Amino acid sequence: MPLMQVAPAAPSATSVPDGSPVTMLGGRQGEGVVAELHGKYYVQTYRGKAWNLTLTATAAIPLFATNASPTFAIWNPPGSGVNCVLIRYTVGFSAGTGVAGAIGYAFLTGVNALVGTAAPVSAATKLALNSGIAGGVYGGQTIGLTAATIGGVAPNALTMYRWSNLSQGAPITTTAAIYSLSEDFDGTVVIPPSTLFCTVGNPAPAESVFQSLAGYDAPI
Known about the structure:
6-stranded antiparallel sheet; single chain; 1 helix; mainly beta; 2 domains
């Protein structure tokens, strides 16, 4: 990253190489003058740390239970060296008739192996994560999952994390007006290594939906 010194100066109109000293915009008493130039996650995205997980095939959000079968999840594998920091979760209606209910999040720790006889997750299908840069290749550690099977018996049991601010009335049908469900985490949810994080409902929302999740990898 560029090194900075504070001095009265006009804003830079060019990019500089990493490791180069730059002059930061400053006031006449030596104070730094700070203004937002990019969006808050621009640096993580530009550095290739941001990702987007999208479930292109629709699925229903499962009812929360210790042995729920997540249809939309992320896994931070052991030894990744990073925390998964969540940015935003969005839900879009696809088909079917929904019921009134709320959407929340659950997690499972100690997931040191994804699939195996003794693994907490005995089955799962991986989902590819897209780089935050359109057309780029995500080369980070976070893994997307769908169709996961959880043991359901401690310690291999889902734990309720919290409920979101997302809920719906009933009935939600194919003729319903367009609606928008999204939650900004703003760094308040961090998924450490060996942890699975997924969406759940209560009651199960019933209709099939499209789901997306954005986040970035941060060094531990």
